[in-house]
């Protein structure tokens, strides 16, 4: 298949006729001719800062040991100095001596007076007492020997390697070499974090940067390319299932951390691809395995299992909002562990789901009310209605500006807080009206209309930014249900945004949402439970941190 026509950028033109064994000199030439502006972002990676500050155990150190990080192709050293300010001993690897000279000047200036862009919140990591050391090494990532310059006697690999688009600038035929080298350099319990850019570049287009296979299955459905990707995906899928089956057959492993993580990982991949048909049985299966380990509270005390539990909890709570009230998962509706879990995850929810924790707690309470409403008698109707009114008041009392005050990029956080405030209010009203806990009064209708109109404007703003668009799916679903009693224009807005979200995020989940909402609108119904007449789950951007799991021997071929 021919490469599609494309404009040649200056970067592509610089490398287009260069031999593979001469790639390194190409980057050195760009540094020496002051053309680093092609890729210079003028600061550290915001996503890396958010992740580091939400995973405090990653940068924990003792008086005798600091975690050691490597940044290959470190450029001007923005991420190097940021990680050092968060307690890491950091090694910046660069092919260009001029880049290292610039980076050293940058580090000296930031150590003297750190800029605010090195930190996520107003207080995180500001103390210089925990500051790590920095060392720059001139060398080729693929050549061995330079790692001997790491100044620790007991060095067994890097605790963190951050790849800021380094993989993306490598010609595709070097990717296996990249993987082997990363395996050699990272410690058995280390973390490899990669930033992919651009996300959706055609795999046939010239680089650098070169396109990667992330999300390609969903972005190439129906094309000849898709068949090979799907076959490769399900080949590895089958290997994973076979491994889990082997673990289930062994009594000493069936309750282990690896087993729980494996089942949950397969579930999440299935859910996020939009293909899961039996997600509830998998979810309940994981729940039963957790109960064999002592339950939620016992597992939450484990550093290894806490990320798994957080993932499961978010999945169950958000999943329950799009299930019939008579068929909710117990995991996402239990109140007895809510306060405990909210306290445990108070600093670590946002990387998995951007719903503010105070509003997330109210979603759980609404789920619980829906479950109780399917069993209540007329004598308890007034009690449920009173509880629902109290929840609505707390949602209205939530202040997005106050919640966002201590966060970096507070404008984005205010937007996210406002989006979820209106979405939770609409979910509360519509789902409980569906069960006659709330009556359809002019006051409630006016409240819903106000939130619906505001939510459409807010979601439009959220979808226009790549920083916030991936967190707009659940609010867009809520708006879609409300749109059944609103205008054709609002329904057109929802139905036009879902395919765009599917394309941009590389998942079929929004397309499944589109099908469900259009069937609901065609039915003439307006009740929440009429839209979700069976257990659906629509969620994205949830990942499992398996850093603490035991490692086995891996072979890259």
Key words describing this protein structure:
5 strands; 2 domains; 557 residues; mainly alpha; five-stranded parallel beta sheet; disordered N terminus; Rossmann fold; 23 helices; 6% strand
Describe the model.
The chain folds into 2 domains: 10-212, Vaccinia Virus protein VP39 (Rossmann fold, 3-Layer(aba) Sandwich); 255-531. The radius of gyration is 25 Å and the shape is globular. A 5-stranded parallel beta sheet has the order 3-2-1-4-5. It has 23 helices and 5 strands. The chain has 557 residues and is mainly alpha-helical. The two termini are 26 Å apart. The model is unreliable at 1-5, 348-352 and 552-557 (pLDDT under 50). It has helices at residues 10-15, 23-32, 46-54, 78-85, 97-112, 166-169, 175-185, 216-219, 224-248, 257-273, 279-292, 295-300, 306-320, 338-344, 357-373, 378-397, 400-404, 410-433, 442-463, 473-482, 488-505, 509-523, 528-531; strands at residues 68-72, 89-94, 134-138, 158-164, 186-195.
């Amino acid at each position: 298949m021919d490469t599609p026509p494309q404009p040649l950028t200056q970067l592509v033109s610089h490398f287009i006729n260069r031999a593979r064994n001469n790639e390194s000199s190409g980057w050195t030439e760009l540094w020496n001719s002051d053309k680093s502006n092609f890729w210079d972002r003028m600061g550290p990676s915001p996503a890396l800062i958010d992740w580091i500050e939400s995973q405090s155990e990653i940068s924990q150190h003792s008086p005798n040991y600091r975690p050691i990080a490597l940044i290959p192709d470190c450029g001007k050293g923005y991420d190097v100095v940021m990680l050092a300010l968060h307690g890491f001993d950091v090694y910046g690897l660069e092919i260009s001596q001029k880049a290292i000279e610039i980076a050293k000047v940058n580090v000296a200036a930031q150590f003297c007076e750190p800029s605010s862009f090195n930190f996520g919140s107003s207080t995180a990591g500001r103390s210089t007492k925990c500051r790590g050391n920095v060392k720059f090494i001139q060398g080729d990532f693929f050549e061995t020997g330079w790692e001997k310059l790491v100044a620790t006697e007991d060095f067994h690999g890097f605790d963190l390697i951050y790849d800021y688009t380094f993989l993306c600038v490598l010609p595709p035929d070097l990717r296996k070499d990249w993987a082997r080298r990363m395996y050699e350099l990272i410690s058995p319990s280390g973390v490899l974090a990669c930033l992919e850019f651009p996300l959706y570049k055609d795999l046939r287009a010239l680089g650098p940067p070169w396109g990667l296979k992330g999300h390609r299955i969903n972005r190439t459905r129906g094309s000849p390319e898709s068949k090979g990707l799907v076959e490769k995906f399900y080949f590895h899928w089958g290997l994973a299932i076979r491994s889990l089956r082997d673990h289930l057959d062994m009594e000493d492993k069936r309750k282990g951390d690896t087993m729980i993580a494996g089942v949950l990982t397969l579930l999440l991949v299935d859910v996020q691809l939009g293909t899961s048909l039996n997600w509830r049985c998998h979810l309940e299966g994981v729940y039963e395995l957790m109960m064999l380990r002592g339950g939620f509270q016992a597992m939450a005390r484990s550093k290894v299992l806490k990320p798994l539990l957080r993932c499961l909890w978010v999945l169950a709570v958000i999943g329950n909002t799009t299930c019939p009230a008579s068929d909710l998962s117990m995991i996402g509706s239990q109140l007895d562990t809510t306060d405990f879990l909210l306290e445990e995850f108070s600093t670590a929810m946002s990387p998995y789901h951007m719903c503010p924790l105070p509003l997330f707690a109210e979603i759980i309470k609404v789920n619980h009310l829906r479950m109780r409403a399917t069993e209540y008698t007329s004598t308890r109707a007034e009690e449920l209605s009173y509880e629902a009114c109290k929840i609505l008041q707390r949602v209205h009392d939530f202040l997005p500006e106050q919640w966002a005050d201590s966060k970096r990029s507070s404008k984005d956080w205010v937007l996210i807080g406002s989006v979820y405030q209106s979405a939770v209010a609409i979910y509360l009203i519509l789902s409980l009206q569906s069960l006659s806990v709330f009556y359809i009064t002019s006051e409630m209708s006016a409240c819903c209309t106000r939130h619906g109109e505001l939510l459409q404007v807010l979601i439009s703003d959220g979808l226009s930014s790549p920083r916030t668009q991936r967190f707009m799916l659940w609010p867009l679903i809520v708006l879609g249900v409300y749109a059944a009693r609103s205008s054709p224009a609002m329904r057109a807005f929802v139905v036009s945004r879902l395919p765009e979200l599917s394309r941009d995020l590389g998942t079929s989940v929004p397309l499944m949402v589109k099908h469900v909402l259009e069937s609901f609108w065609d039915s003439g119904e307006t009740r929440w439970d009429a839209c979700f007449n069976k257990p659906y789950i629509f969620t994205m951007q949830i990942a499992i941190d398996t850093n603490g799991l035991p490692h086995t021997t891996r072979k890259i071929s």
